[in-house]
Specification:
single chain, 455 residues, alpha/beta, OB fold (Dihydrolipoamide Acetyltransferase, E2P), Rossmann fold, five-stranded parallel sheet, rod-shaped, disordered N terminus
Length: 455
Amino acid sequence: MADDLFDDDEWDDDVDDEEPGTTFSVSEVADTINDVLGEAFDRGIWVWGEITGLSTKNGHTYFSLVEATPSGGKAQLSVNLWAGVMTKLRPLLKRSGVTLENGVKVRVFGSLDFYAPFGKISLNMRDIDPRFTLGDIALQREELIRRLRESGDYDRNRELELSPAPLRVGVVTSESSAAWADFRHEIERSGLGFHLRLADVRVQGESAVRDVTTAIRVLGQRDDIDVIAVVRGGGSRAELATFDAEEIAWAIAASPVPVITGIGHEIDTSVADEVAHERFKTPTACAAGLVERVQAFVNATEEAWSSIARLASDALGESNGALRVMANQIASRTRSAVERAEERLGFRSTRLRTSVANSIVAHETRIRSGRDRLRRRLPQVLERSSLQVGGFEARARLLDPRELMKRGWSVTRSSSGAVIRSVSDVGEGEALTTQLADGTISSTVDAVTPDDVRK
């Protein structure tokens, strides 16, 4: 016969040797765990960690608190925030400016519970300490600012030279936001020639930091941007914490283009504000700052042109005055020369008549002879005197500005009355007035061709 597989005696001995004890069902184990947790933490427990995996369903909020362990791993605890508790906590969260979202460190209060269907322990949250979250955010900001100062990058963007007329503006914000609408309205209301280039990004949420950082870097590499404006509307402290991110701060510091901010918080300043070339309280104020800078440049330019026009007008007036004085002097000298010539001619005529009379009485022959000589010489004397007088008159006419215009010279003025001396003084389409000897001609510039272009 074959041997039995199990020896009955040996099996019975093993059973008899076991320690006496109780066998639990799974539900009994779950109940026991909850009893133990209830006794150990009967008043609840405070737990801190970083929120991850946040989700909502049917008004309830679920997330996990995680913490890095010294061994390089992580510890994790599930948290349940029921809808009714959330309703009670919402005023506190709003008042403190804290938003529950992934990556935010929180300190929460609740009771531990072992949920048998899932086989895991979770925390049923009943309260939160907003000061813990705000303090952690503040510490992170201070640490980042300290490192920026030590590296020399804190003032790096502020040291860039901002154009006196920054008309080409790269705007980093959400296209659907009120911040973009307010910024654009203020720019358009100015009536100045701004050119806006929008980088449409998310300004809150998980991808906000990456989107804003990338937009700043891309706009900074363009050669058609004078300034980058990073703007968003108001929000809670946790929402605005996006702009405390290290990636955004380093992107602003390293930007080759000046960056200005209008992040919409009246009291606090973000790290982005700290490292920006200039910060403004709101998107509207940010746009107004650009408008004010460009308008100041326009005013200064117009004042410079007005000064140039005044100086040119004064110089032209002085030249005209000097020309009139010179013309008067020439006319006066010409009249004096003619009068002296007439006096000399009259004196010579008188002396000639006297000499002829005496000669007639004394010597009739000499009178006739002298008369003949006089008749021969008189035309020559008169002709020579006449030629001399004519020369004076010709010189006077040559110095007369109207005679210069009759020879083809003219004076051309711009619509403001300024004398045009160079092709750089006019532009296409400008109205001109040309003064000629017998009137004026109005014309419009079709083209301007400098001498070096024709060559």
